[in-house]
Design a protein that fits this description.
The complex is a heterotrimer.
Chain A (H helix, E strand, L loop, with lengths): L18 H14 L2 H17 L1 H4 L30 H37 L1 H16 L2 H12 L3 H27 L3 H9 L3 H37 L10 H8 L8 H35 L2
Helix pairs in contact in A: 1-11, 2-4, 2-11, 4-5, 4-7, 4-9, 4-11, 5-7, 6-7, 7-9, 8-9, 9-10, 9-11, 10-11
Chain B lengths: L1 H4 L16 E12 L2 E13 L4 E5 L6 H9 L6 E10 L2 E2 L5 H7 L4 E4 L3 H4 L6 H12 L4 H18 L16 H12 L6 E5 L7 H17 L3 E6 L2 H7 L2 E6 L2 E7 H6 L4 H9 L38 H5 L4 E4 L2 E4 L11
Parallel strand pairs in B: 3-8, 3-9, 6-7, 7-8
Antiparallel strand pairs in B: 1-2, 1-4, 4-5, 9-10, 10-12, 11-12
Helix pairs in contact in B: 5-6, 6-7, 7-8
Chain C lengths: L15 E10 L12 E11 L4 E5 L6 H8 L7 E6 L2 E2 L5 H7 L3 E4 L3 H4 L6 H11 L5 H11 L4 H4 L9 H14 L4 E5 L7 H18 L2 E6 L2 H7 L2 E6 L2 E7 H4 L6 H9 L38 H5 L5 E4 L2 E3 L12
Parallel strand pairs in C: 3-8, 3-9, 6-7, 7-8
Antiparallel strand pairs in C: 1-2, 1-4, 4-5, 9-10, 10-12, 11-12
């Protein structure tokens, strides 16, 4: 109702009227990004496939049929592999594995990254020094080879793979969260909480993390895609969990038939591309929507 | 000194009854907001004759900055002039197309904002800013433009109390007071007739503010400027202006010579505003506020906009717009003004 | 306006007492160059008695806000001590420090930033009571909000963005007062508010002081405002207090040239002309202080002695201290 929107000393990006306005601007930014809504639609489709896998797939993906290396046709829309397994069923059920792995790995990364980053940025001093060094060390290690080494040493069950991926990609999130916490701790409402005698844990949980989480959310979406690719890479090298049908594993097993059965590798490959793209597009949309706000929020 | 400062085309001082520099008639400005159209300025009349200095005083939400932006044709998206005229040297700016408006800005009217730091590009020296502004409105090009611009810049910087070598400084190396001075100098490059200062000293410390105010007061004389000073601080207005206009919720409620209005305000809002200012003289006392809040400007009241907060308001005040009274060079828009024979 | 004349005799114990307080930033630990530290607060002695409002005046960058943050222990001093009710609190940490926060509260300049925009007022007001384990939350909140002119039935379920600046600042004061502190630092509490609502915020503060004998450090750049609100005033320049005394005296006839210049610079609506600038130039950087009086470079009265020897705060009269070699004398009145 105020006509003079620029009261002389009020800061721009006045957080006084945040939340739902913020939400509305966020959504508008997300929609304007174009990639965001497309990604969301793709992901919805992929998730639907995962949820309806038993309905969609004609057979269990592990089941052997009589048709060996059959090309795509009426009975087997994506054909079969050299052992007679239905590729379509494999791709459909593989959706579940890939989504599960991507989401769990990224979630682990988000939780660890957020906590480490928030503590480092908020506490400052020697705690920040130590945690920052830790983050740097992890960032310098080539993730894929670390995962490779750990899997070779300790085994390759799916939960194991998820955990190992999650625990190697968190530093990116930690860095983002630390930067947020560094600027948030200077904000008046955080100082006010300190001055009231609030415990540090609560300040982190109630003021720092809820305000600083947005870039981490955007990045975590991208990490889902990264984790799916990492797993595919591991499986392609034959290091994935042999007990589950994942897209990477299908490509790994299909590579022997590649010369005379292109369908064994093409369809799982496409599935990876579509899913990874969905998450990338969403992450891109989130970045687009959140960055102008991050600029305002700075300092 | 004055001769050196004046740009070549500035002629002699026009006679007192000359055509107004700025003439605002029935100006109405509104903004589109999520909750509806806000009436920011509701029928404003204001005339500035050559050499005039008028202070536009009001609090946040009064519409004072909107007036300045409307004059400069710089209303933000969602804002528009609904009615009225803004005549600058006889030309109505509200009907001018953008490219002609651009020619008017800087050359005939210039504005100085509060935030000097954001007005300068951080990667360019002050000199570059002066050259850019020069080129935008002059035919000269190349080296010649640069040397003419810098020549003018040196004169102006000195006039605002800066050393000419400040030209080679980057904005971030200068203090707030120096930047504000540089911004004033920049506004004067094309010798505008009208200078609008929108809270131009608000962000400065009191000592620096006093320095800048005294420099502006000198510039008003030496550059033959007509000034519109927009401020929430009646002290600043008293220092720079001969007349003051008090704005409340988009309405001009009182206007007149500064000293008279501040010493013997006639509108109850002016009186309350003046009382709310703590003074360095007189008895120490409990400070007074003005109870209540601005009316909802998406649905402006039928009667007087101040009625809800006014100690003198009666039923009649809420029914229709208050009468306007002109006497002795003063204007007051009130049914029951103070200091007149009309009691409550 | 009942300004109680206060005596500062030895009989009354100070509530808060800062001795030789320093806060330097960036102690030259840079890798490439040893830069001199920025001396934000550089040797401050300050005492506030119970129930007293002390104004801390100065321009931006003089260290007044830093001093405020030191006193409420939001920052740690580089050197010096702070005593609260006779107890040294300079190095309190952890649980003990959090317990102390009930006694010492702070009100910030920007009311739009004081509350976390994610939480309703109810939550923001309940927090301090939970933190300090105070009973009767409902009653206490209702009481203080009533006094703030923000009845709970209308305001408790609002988000901060749904309040005006004046209302928010009163809510911020209400929150600070909920835990019944004995000392409050108010850092420019009304500088962002419209003139017409400043009084209601300030009068709320003054009423609380009258009721509870709360002591305030009132940080402001506005001399005229301080005159009406404070009992005593201390003027800071580049990290040091240069003059300290009764509010009426410091806003009418201070003796140090800097507060005199400040006073002369205030645009006076009653005077009607631009104040002639009382000082030339701007303060030097607090990272580049030489020897001698730090005001000497801008002082109209500075002599050679001023540039060599830094003056210290010395009593000029009872309850009045000045740090100047050549303080202004009555007979020099024009």
């Amino acid at each position: 109702m105020r006509a003079d929107t620029g009261r002389h000393r009020r800061r721009p990006g006045d957080p006084g009227r945040a939340t739902d306005l913020e939400l509305r601007t966020f959504w508008r930014g997300y929609v304007e990004s174009r990639s965001g809504p497309i990604g969301l639609a793709l992901l919805a489709a992929v998730a639907l496939v995962a949820a309806l896998a038993p309905v969609l797939a004609p057979v269990r993906p592990e089941a052997f049929t009589d048709a060996l290396l059959a090309p795509p046709g009426p009975g087997h829309p994506f054909g079969t592999d050299h052992l007679g397994r239905d590729i379509f069923s494999g791709v459909v059920y593989g959706t579940r594995i890939s989504l599960l792995l991507g989401v769990v790995s990224a979630a682990i990364s988000a939780v660890v990254g957020t906590v480490v980053g928030a503590v480092a940025g908020y506490a400052g001093g020697w705690i920040d020094e130590i945690l920052s060094r830790l983050i740097d060390v992890f960032l310098m290690i080539p993730v894929f080879f670390l995962v490779l080494v750990v899997i070779m040493l300790f085994g390759n069950s799916l939960p194991y793979v998820m955990t190992v991926i999650g625990l190697t990609i968190w530093p990116a999130n930690a860095r983002l969260m630390r930067a947020q916490a560094l600027s948030l701790r200077e904000r008046t409402f955080v100082r006010a909480a300190v001055a009231l005698g609030e415990a540090h844990g609560r300040i982190l949980a109630r003021h720092i993390i809820p305000h600083g989480i947005y870039p981490v959310v955007a990045n975590t979406t991208l990490q889902v895609a990264g984790a799916i690719l990492t797993e595919a890479g591991l499986s392609f090298l034959g290091l994935g969990d042999p007990n589950v049908v994942s897209w990477g594993r299908m490509i790994y097993e299909g590579r022997v038939s590649m010369p005379h059965g292109w369908w064994t590798t093409l369809f799982p490959g496409l599935a990876i591309v579509v899913t990874v793209m969905a998450f990338y597009l969403i992450g891109d949309g989130l970045n687009h929507a959140l960055n102008p706000q991050a600029r305002e929020r700075g300092a | 000194m004055t001769r050196d400062l004046a740009a070549p085309e500035a002629g002699g001082r026009p006679p007192a009854a000359a055509e107004p520099v700025l003439e605002i008639r029935g100006l109405r400005v509104s903004y589109d907001t999520p909750t509806g159209r806000v009436q920011a300025v509701a029928g404003l009349d204001l005339v500035l004759r050559p050499g005039d200095s008028v202070g536009l005083v009001g609090e946040s939400g009064s519409g004072k900055s909107t007036v300045a932006l409307a004059v400069m044709g710089l209303l933000p998206a969602g804002g528009r002039v609904d009615a009225g005229q803004v005549r600058l040297l006889g030309r109505d700016l509200t009907t001018l197309p953008e490219h002609e408006l651009r020619a008017v800005r800087w050359r005939q009217a210039a504005m100085v904002f509060q935030k000097a730091m954001s007005a300068f590009s951080p990667v360019h020296r002050l000199a570059d800013h002066f050259v850019d502004v020069w080129r935008a409105h002059r035919p000269e090009r190349g080296r010649r433009a640069r040397s003419l611009a810098l020549e003018r810049a040196r004169v102006l910087l000195e006039a605002v109390g800066l050393r000419p070598d400040a030209l080679w400084a980057y904005p971030h190396t200068l203090s707030g007071g120096m930047l504000q001075r540089a911004l004033i100098a920049l506004a004067l490059v094309h010798q505008p007739r009208l200078l609008i200062l929108d809270e131009a000293t608000t962000a400065l410390d009191v000592v620096t503010q006093a320095q800048v105010l005294s420099e502006v007061a000198r510039l008003q004389r030496e550059f033959d400027l007509t000034t519109l000073v927009i401020s929430h601080d009646i002290g600043v207005v008293a220092a720079l202006c001969r007349r003051v206009a008090v704005l409340y919720a988009g309405h001009l409620v009182e206007e007149g010579p500064v000293q008279q209005v501040l010493e013997a305000p006639r509108h109850p809002y002016t009186a309350a505003l003046v009382r709310a200012f703590p003074r360095l003289r007189g008895p120490r006392r409990r400070l007074e506020s003005i109870p209540g809040t601005l009316p909802d400007l998406t649905r402006p009241p039928q009667g007087c906009v101040f009625a809800d907060r006014c100690p003198r308001a009666a039923g009649a005040c809420r029914e229709g717009p208050p009468p306007v009274e002109h006497s002795g060079g003063r204007m007051v828009r009130c049914r029951f003004p103070l200091g007149g024979d009309a009691g409550a | 306006m009942p300004h109680v004349a206060r005596q500062h005799d030895g009989a009354r114990q100070p509530l808060i007492e800062a001795r030789g307080l320093h806060r330097w930033y960036g102690s030259g630990r840079s890798l490439l160059a040893r830069r001199p530290p920025l001396r934000a607060v550089d040797g401050v002695d300050l005492v506030v008695y119970p129930g007293e409002i002390v104004g801390l005046i100065g321009e931006s960058g003089c260290g007044k806000s830093t001093l405020g943050r030191l006193l409420v222990r939001l920052e740690a001093p580089t050197a010096g001590t702070i005593a609260f009710a006779g107890r040294d609190i300079t190095h309190l940490r952890g649980r003990r420090l959090r317990a102390l926060r009930r006694q010492i509260q702070v009100i910030f300049q920007n009311p739009f930033e004081t509350f976390d925009p994610r939480y309703r007022l109810r939550q923001a007001l309940y927090d301090p009571l939970r933190i300090h384990g105070l009973p009767d939350a409902e009653r206490r909140i209702a009481e203080v909000m009533e006094r703030a002119g923000l009845p709970v039935d209308q305001y408790l379920d609002r988000y901060p963005r749904e309040l005006s600046g004046g209302q928010l600042q009163r809510a911020a004061i209400a929150r600070a007062m909920l835990v019944e502190p004995r000392f409050v630092v108010a850092d420019e509490p009304v500088s962002m508010l419209d003139v017409s609502v400043r009084a209601e915020v300030l009068n709320f503060l003054l009423d609380l002081r009258a009721q509870r004998q709360t002591a305030f450090l009132f940080i402001t750049h506005d001399l005229a405002l301080a005159r009406h609100v404070c009992d005593r005033i201390a003027v800071m320049y580049l990290g040091r207090i240069v003059e300290e005394g009764p509010a009426e005296l410091l806003t009418s006839a201070p003796r140090h040239p800097y507060p005199r210049a400040l006073l002369a610079s205030v645009p006076d609506p009653d005077a009607g002309t631009a104040a002639s600038p009382a000082l030339r130039g701007e303060p030097p950087s607090p990272a580049a202080l030489g020897t001698g009086c730090r005001f000497a470079g801008r002082c109209p009265l500075a002599s050679e002695a001023c540039r060599r020897v830094e003056p210290v705060l010395e009593p000029a009269a009872p309850g009045h201290r000045v740090a100047c070699h050549f303080p202004w004398e009555e007979q020099r009145t024009p």
